[in-house]
Amino acid sequence: MSPAKKLLFSFIALVVIPAFCLLALEGGLRLAGVGTHYTYFNEIDIDGEKYLQDNKSFANQFYPSSLGVAPLNNTLSVNQDQDLVRVFVLGGSAAQGFPHVNHGMDRHLSAHLKTALPNKNIEIINTAMTSVNSHVVYEVARTLPANSADYAVILMGNNEVVGPYGPSTFSQNFLSSLTLIRTLQALKRTRIWQVIAMFVEQAQVSSGEGDLEWQGMQMFSGFSVPHDDPRLTQVYSHYESNLKDIITLLQQKGMHVILSSVPVNTRHSAPFGSRHKSTLTESELTQWHAMNSKAEEAFINENWQAAVTAYAAMLEIDDEYADSHFRLATALENLNKFEAAKQHFELALHYDTKRFRTNHVINNIIQRVAIEKAGEQLTYVDNVDVFNAASAPYAPGLDLLHEHVHFDFAGNYYLAREFTQAIMSDIAPSEQYKRLAKHQTAALIGFPNHETNQVMERMLNMIQKAPFTEQSNHIELKAHTEARKETLEKQVGRPAEVVERRQSIVDKGLADWKIHYELAELHRFLRNKEQHYFHLSEVIRLYPHNHESYIKMAEYLSAEGKFSQANAHLQRSLHYTRNSVEKEVQALGWLGLNYMKLNDYFKGKSYLQDVVRQYPEQIGANIRAYGLLVKYARDNNQNDDLRQTVDAVKDYASALIEAGRDKEFPLLYRRMAQIMTLAGESEEAKHWQALQTS
Asked: Quick check: 587 and 614 in contact, CB under 8 A?
């Protein structure tokens, strides 16, 4: 055999055949329904129309599924009409609206645009997620359908170090090669990789590692990345490349990009970590500590000039200690030296070793990319400059943000105002439009409300954990948050007062579906059934894609004995379960019960049997379904069904006990005794009661 043929056969044996086998295996796994896709949206069918719906598995390619990092709920029509203006929002938790997810920037933006464009339908689709960085946002942009929106707002940069593939992440190793990162992500999209990952995950569980649980920022707080860490060069390079590619992808898909710089709290967010410079000698460190004691004493006693002198002297010894810059800035501000204070606030951010905030390097990259891509369906909004102006003469702080990066009402207002101006400049550059004041925006989005009280309670709990407790101004942050919480609670008032405040925008036809949802719940609390029903109907009319709306309406109608109407809403709810087993089981079991109450035994039986056949892991729902099947089989003299169901539930319960799963449902024995009593099996009932006792 000639050398050429040997080379050809070797290539076929070593490359072609293995590649063919892998492709065949991949295709087989896909055909068998193994694994999942990682596009941002699923395409679903509702009444013959195609819709896009968020894919709750999307972020599982970056984070363990047990952490629950997932997109917000969004369902939108594939087909856009000419009267629709649709905007995608891309970014992390700040863009998502945390902690006020229902009063975040996207809700503000919707109110602003609806006021500016009263003859248009406005849709703001928020694709932002907690703890994601540009690597994740790139995958969002890559998988968004073409021509699915008119505008895309990009507000990202806080999580570049702590997010996936960053130096401070906990879930992957830092990778310096962007090509390697994207190759790895491509492999994760294969079903072969997913099968291997599934076996690895099972091995970890069996070895006792268990599932990770979300613990917020403290999950990332153990990692320090000083300003001179060589990995930061790659972080910034990755960010710039990702940002450019994100913009290009969105533009290629027909979207005008609104690119924003990222404002953060420099004035009231002390560094999360400080480090002495590596060249500091022992004698210098001793001298520094002595000065620090004097500086702290002056600071605590509000002797600002002495504090400035002491901290300035400390920085002569060590100009890289972040908290010295922060304390000096605070002292300078109290002497009305605002520009000098701002410089040191920025230096405190620059030297902060726990990098939870966008810094000047990333914002400079954003500005540079905006200049490079100017005129290519892109508008740059310098929200850093906007925040500086809004807070002047001070640096941005707790007047606009809750803590280090998440925006309060005022911060979200300014962001939305500027994004609206950018969009209106593109849609109608020569036309004047109606601009909203803060109080008008608050009325239109219903801020604050009773949910706000809960949000502020969670915020207060959050800042009493690491890394916030490691900040030198933690006491002040806690005091401010408590005061803000108390102020908002007073503004909210009693349910009847909230209803009265909302009535004017309802009367004017300006209430969005979330206002109506809030009012429906308030009227339910106030036991005003007519208004409860009215507002639920308005919710469904204005936004027919919210699962909870259908469940609330089914509750109301079922209580009124209108089981057929309730069932119609339960059927609709199944379009919005997003593969949540609990929600699917709830709707199916409820449908079964309602059909039984309508004397449609066989249809009710069908739904209840769907529960026990398709969802055997849901123990409580199964026992309830079996109980209903027994009751209505007996009531309808379906004796064969009764015997079969009694046998089936006994087998099911026995299997649970044998597997040791009875502990998952402590009421198992009591419920079995009740079912046996319903079935007329008195001896069996006594048997299960005895097991309960033992």
From this structure: no
